[in-house]
Design goal:
With 358 residues, this protein is of the alpha+beta class. It folds into 2 domains: 61-171, PurM-like, N-terminal domain (60s Ribosomal Protein L30, Chain: A, 2-Layer Sandwich), CATH 3.30.1330; 180-345, PurM-like C-terminal domain (Phosphoribosyl-aminoimidazole Synthetase, Chain A, domain 2, Alpha-Beta Complex). Helices cover 29% and strands 24% of the residues. The chain is built from 8 helices and 16 strands. It has helices at residues 37-51, 91-104, 125-142, 197-207, 223-232, 246-258, 273-282, 301-312; strands spanning 2-3, 16-17, 63-67, 70-79, 85-86, 89-90, 109-120, 145-154, 162-171, 188-191, 238-240, 261-265, 296-299, 321-327, 334-337, 343-345. Strands 11-13-10-14-12-15-16 form a 7-stranded mixed beta sheet. A 5-stranded mixed beta sheet has the order 3-4-9-7-8, with helices on one face. β7 (109-120), α3 (125-142) and β8 (145-154) form a beta-alpha-beta unit. α2 (91-104) runs parallel beside α3 (125-142) and α5 (223-232) packs across α8.
Length: 358
C-alpha cells in the first residue's frame, strides 16, 4: 500500500491506493469471480441468504442429491476464458471438462450436460462452429452426452465473443461419500500431477509472453482417474479440482470446512520448470495458479499407497505425488513447509492472480 498525500500533513485513508480490492467495496470487482475470499464473501452474504436450502449449504463442486431413491450429482459452471483458443484447448473443451470434473469430485460419472451459448453480435460463425466442434469432441471423449441447450445473442460491445454455461448430472455410486467434513487428522494429501500449467498457458498466449518452451493447458476430463481411485477403495474422504485460486484455494476450502489443519511440503509439490520460471519472472505463486486437469485428494493413511499406485497407473495421474497431510494443529489453516525448513501460511487468495482463465 502506498500513501499519496503530502508526508508533512496528516494521512487519510481515502488518499491511499492498494493493489488488492478493498473487501467492503459496494460494487463488483474482478476479484469477486476469482474463487478466493471475495468470491466466498459474495456467495455467503448475497447468494446463500437469497437462495437458502440444505442442498446449497453443501457448497461443494457439485451438489449431492437424492431423487427417487437414486443419488445424483448436479453441477453448473460458466466459462468466460480469454482467448477462446489456447495451447492445449479452447473454451469448448473447458465447458465440458470443467463441469464433468465438478461431478467427478463428488464421485459421480457424468451422464448428461446442458449447454448455453451467449454470443456477441459480430462474432464470426466460423469461430462459433470451431468452439462447438471442440465442445462436442470433448463431450465424446468424456463419455457424456449434450442433451439440451440454449443460445442468446447480446449487442456488440456487451460480451467477449463467446461465453458458455454448462450444467451436468451424474450418478453417485453406492458407498461413495466425498465431502470435506470427512477429513480427519492423519489423512494424506495427494495431488494428481504438475500444478499451475493451465493458468500459465493462458497467460502466455494472452500477453504474448515466451518462456523458452510452449506451455500447454492441462485441460482434461478426470472421471476415469477418479474411477481408478474409487476402485481401490470407496473410502476416499474428499476430492477437489483446484481451478480458480489454484491448489491454495482448494486446500483452504477443505481446511475451513473440515476444521482440520493442513501441512504441505513445498518441495514435494510438482511444479514444472517452465511454470516455476514463469511465476518467478512475473512474481506469481504457483500454488495460486489455476489448473483444469488436476485434482487433490484427502485419503485415509491406510489406503494412501494403494490409491497413489492406482493414480500413477492412469495417464492423467502418472505424476501423482503425496504432498502433505491433515493435522490437529492450527485447525482450519493451511501451512507450507519450505525447502529451508521454515513454514509459511498459505492463505485463501483475495481474488485471482490471473483473471478470465476459465
Amino acid at each position: 500500500m502506498s500513501e499519496t498525500t503530502d508526508l508533512r500533513g496528516p494521512a487519510t485513508l481515502e488518499a491511499w491506493t492498494c493493489p488488492a480490492p478493498l473487501r467492503d467495496r459496494p460494487r463488483v470487482v474482478m476479484g469477486h469471480g476469482g474463487g478466493g475470499a471475495l468470491s466466498a464473501e459474495l456467495v455467503q452474504h448475497v447468494f446463500a441468504p437469497a437462495f437458502g436450502g440444505e442442498v446449497l449449504a453443501q457448497m461443494g463442486d457439485a451438489a449431492a442429491l437424492s431423487l427417487g431413491g437414486v443419488r445424483l450429482a448436479f453441477s453448473t459452471d460458466s466459462f468466460v476464458v480469454r482467448p477462446l483458443f489456447f495451447p492445449g484447448g479452447s473454451i469448448g473443451d473447458l465447458a465440458v471438462n470443467g463441469t464433468v470434473n465438478d461431478l467427478a469430485m463428488s464421485g459421480a460419472r457424468a451422464a448428461y450436460l446442458s449447454c448455453g451459448f451467449i454470443l456477441e453480435e459480430g462474432v464470426e460463425v466460423e469461430v462459433v462452429a470451431r468452439v462447438a466442434e471442440a465442445l462436442g469432441a470433448a463431450a465424446r471423449t468424456a463419455g457424456v452426452e449434450v442433451a439440451t441447450g440454449d443460445t442468446k445473442v447480446v449487442e456488440a460491445g456487451h460480451g467477449d465473443g463467446i461465453f458458455i454455461n454448462t450444467a451436468g448430472i451424474g450418478l453417485i455410486p453406492a458407498g461413495v461419500d466425498l465431502r470435506p467434513q470427512r477429513v480427519v487428522p492423519g489423512d494424506v494429501v495427494i495431488v494428481s500431477g504438475a500444478i499451475g500449467v493451465h493458468g500459465v498457458a493462458i497467460m502466455s498466449v494472452r500477453e504474448g509472453l515466451e518462456f523458452g518452451v510452449e506451455i500447454e493447458s492441462d485441460c482434461a476430463a478426470l472421471g476415469g482417474l477418479v474411477d481408478a481411485m474409487l476402485a481401490v477403495t470407496p473410502d476416499l474422504h474428499v476430492l477437489r479440482d483446484p481451478t480458480r485460486g489454484g491448489l491454495a484455494a482448494a486446500l483452504n476450502e477443505i481446511a475451513a470446512a473440515s476444521g482440520a489443519g493442513v501441512v504441505v511440503r513445498e518441495r514435494d509439490v510438482p511444479v514444472p520448470p517452465a511454470v516455476a520460471n514463469a511465476c518467478a519472472i512475473l512474481g506469481l505463486d504457483p500454488l495460486y495458479v489455476a489448473n483444469e486437469g488436476k485434482l487433490v485428494a484427502f485419503v485415509p493413511r491406510e489406503h494412501a499407497d494403494a490409491v497413489l499406485g492406482a493414480m500413477r497407473a492412469h495417464p492423467l495421474g502418472a505424476d501423482a505425488r503425496i504432498i502433505g497431510e491433515a493435522v490437529e494443529a492450527h485447525p482450519g489453516m493451511v501451512v507450507a513447509r519450505t525447502g529451508l525448513g521454515g513454514t509459511r501460511v498459505v492463505d485463501l487468495p483475495i481474488g485471482e492472480q490471473l483473471p478470465r482463465i476459465c
